[in-house]
Amino acid sequence: MMRATPLGDLAPVKDRFTLVGKAALVTGAAGGIGRTCAAALADLGADVAIADLPERFGDAESVAAQIADRYGVRAVPLGADVGSPKEVDAMFESAVEALGGLDVVHSNAGIITPNDNADMAVAEWDRIVRVNLTGMFLVNRCAAGVIRESGGGAIVNTASMSASIVNRALPGTRHAVAYTATKAAVKHLTKAMAVEFAPVGIRVNSVSPGVVLSGIHDPIVEQMGISYDQFAAAAGSAPFSIPLGRFGMLDEIGGVVAFLATDLASYITGVDILVDGGTTVW
Q1: Which of 139, 187, 226, 241 could pair with 230 as two cysteines, CB 3.0-4.6 Å apart?
Q2: Marked catalytic residue, from 71, 179, 228, 267
Q3: What global pTM score does this model have?
Q4: Is 267 a catalytic residue?
């Protein structure tokens, strides 16, 4: 007969909130959310591969150097376009060669453009789908193949609150139809991948940031013709109307990703965690 674990036999929470001895790969890691999440994983002891587009390899090198210096872990820069099957395969081969395997993959790479609306060119639609959705599929597929060799681990995808709602359009802009559609697909892809890979000990979850001051909104702010300070000051009012009255900070995303990567989340899979200041409750 099964019995509840006695209080004295419970494993300490702090002992499970660690990634010491683990290796991780983060895509889109030269950008705001990516580099912050890579740093969070390193802060818990993981060696990390910092992956971004080949043309951003210099930025990836800089992030890797800073992480290695600050946290005392191995950090290696990689260049790859996540929408290319060949480049994704090569990225994982390089990460495994450099780090000896992978236990955690944070599939974070994604794009947004000011021209994303119902009248957008099909070529622009295809570009967003290729990076945000096809890239997520390719990274997840390769990640599972590598992580199962390590005996199991975690995949964390970056979705968005736009996977759950259609954002209210900002003044001077229109609704981001391709971004919204791809992020909704990422959320559901995560659930399907979670079921697919559960038998081999791989947990797959997603994190859905709200408006986070990460730099990704810079083109939209520029299109609106306002300063970033003016943009940030609008958090509590329409069209944002964020209940907490402010936008998110990068480390508030990194902490959630780090949690999902650790053994503290060992019974969590197929879940999307909203980090949006309450925006989606309306």
Answers
A1: 226
A2: 179
A3: 0.94
A4: no
